[in-house]
Amino acid sequence: MLIAIDCGNTSTVVGLYDGEPPHGAFRHVYHFDTESGLGAAEHRARLDDELGAAELSGADLQGAAIACVVPDALGALAEFAEAATSVGPVVVGALGNVLGCKVLVDQPAKVGADRLVNTLAAHSLYPGPSIIVDFGTATTFDVVSAQGDYAGGVIAPGVDLALSALHDAAALLPPVEVARPERVIGTDTVGAMQSGIYWGYVSLVEGLINRIRAEYGETGDASFTVIATGGLAPLLAGGTELIDAVEPNLTLTGLVLNHRINRPA
Questions:
Q1: What are phi and psi of 252, to 5 degrees?
Q2: What is the pLDDT of residues 47-88, one digit of tens each?
Q3: How far out from the chain centre does Cα 68 lie?
Q4: How many whole angstroms separate alpha carbon 198 and alpha carbon 185?
Q5: From the CA atom positions of the chain, what is the Rg in Å?
Q6: Is the pTM of this model over 0.85?
Q7: Has 114 been annotated as catalytic?
Q8: What DSSP character marks residue 145?
Q9: Any domain includes 152
Q10: For residue 220, which of 122, 123, 146, 124 has the smallest C-alpha distance?
Q11: 3-class DSSP assignment, residue 150
Q12: For the chain, what is the domain count?
């Protein structure tokens, strides 16, 4: 069983994968807030709790793969993963790591590890060109070529970040939950804010997808499969017909694939 760890700016997701892709499956997935001060022992204690809750055995853990965009958190995660599996983890972006696709941008080393493994997963699940919309701390749009290479993308503020900024900057605007309002025109402050966030982001998604299709169509195949991932993907995908698939474990799947390429002998 493989530990796949996606450490993002806001949250960390851990998946326990059993088997060989594409025939394996995630036996258990859990989330926690990213804290760079957590030590290896604290990560192990959490893993043990999750293994017990899922009725799984730590003796079955045979390797780990990590994508981390928080440098201060990586050391403890790598130490924990090696102690839990008795083998060094595969770390996306580390020296010697073979990604499994080309990165066709000006500064490949600066592309987030999560976006790169998303590319691997998207092309494995949906061969051909695709657009990945990831609703995380940032809302990112990543373009995967027909050959499975990373062709570039777009970074916009995330939904929760936009909501927090709106509340923090305007004294009379309350904190609100992200929800799909029945009407675009709100009749009170909360309804107006929810509409602005929900339908505003749906419009952002639709507008950028259409612009990416038009621009990439100048040089390549514009018949993209549009894949959504991230915590808010199911909610926001329900507001548009341009998203073809929702894949909650896209990044974890990419980590499994990268581990298969780089697994220790």
A1: -60, -40
A2: 999 999 999 999 999 999 999 999 999 999 999 999 999 999
A3: 11
A4: 12
A5: 19
A6: yes
A7: yes
A8: -
A9: yes
A10: 146
A11: strand
A12: 2
Total residue length of the chain: 265
The count of other CB atoms within 10 Å of the CB of residue 185 is 8
For residue range 96-107, list pLDDT tens digits in order.
Answer: 999 999 999 999
In the chain, the amino acid numbered 218 is E
How deeply is 86 buried, as exposed, middle or buried, from its count of CB atoms within 10 A (0-12, 13-18, 19+)? exposed
The reply to whether 100 falls in a domain is: no
Distance CA 87, CA 230 (A): 29
Domain range for 187: 108-251
Joined tokens for residue 71:
């440098």
Residue 184 in any domain: the answer is: yes
Q: Six-digit token pair at 194?
A: 């929810």
State how far Cα 32 lies from the chain centre: 14
Regarding whether 193 and 144 lie in a shared domain, the answer is yes
d(CA 61, CA 46): 15
The phi and psi torsions of 18 (rounded to 5 degrees) equal: -115, 130
Q: Answer whether 89's CB lies under 8 Å from 65's CB.
A: yes
Q: Which of 33, 48, 114, 149 is catalytic?
A: 114
Q: Are residues 157 and 227 in the same domain?
A: yes
- Cβ-count burial 4-40 (b if 16+ within 10 Å, e if not): bbbbbbeebbbbbbeeebeeeebbbbbeeebeeebeb
